[in-house]
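FORM 7B: Structural annotation worksheet

SECTION A. Query
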Amino acid sequence: MSTTVGDLLRIKGAKVETISASETILEAIRRMSEKHIGCLAVVTRAGKLSGILSERDVLWKVIAAAKSPKTNRVKDAMTPLKQMKTVSPSQTVEECMALMTGRRHRHLPVLADGKLAGLISIGDVVKFMLDAQQATIQSLEKYITGTF
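SECTION B. Predicted structure
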């Protein structure tokens, strides 16, 4: 049985840092910096996901384009929901890894019944998979040496 995204969210936590599309890019950068994160979920007033704003979005669509982070808005740089992949809590961590590496995504919003249930990063997925492999190795070592 494979571990699901829902299981991963229960381990890492499902709290998602959000921002509105009308905020400035500078405010988004400050928030990402304060929280030590690389992505914010962009939500409507009703809390519905409308996209994400990542470090890459800021770098490519604002900084590289010589736009001002003080005057440009999140809505101008975010990746809209219709252009991105999302996952459900029932999908496996392995499926997410394949999706993220295959499409070069660093973040995937998790939607449950159309509502934002979490956000996972490539770091979350890699850490989880490495921890699982380490646990398997330790179990096998104990089995081989008879110390289980």
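SECTION C. Observations
Strands lie at 18-19, 39-43, 49-54, 79-80, 107-112, 115-121. The chain has a mean pLDDT of 92.

SECTION D. Sign-off
Analyst initials: ____
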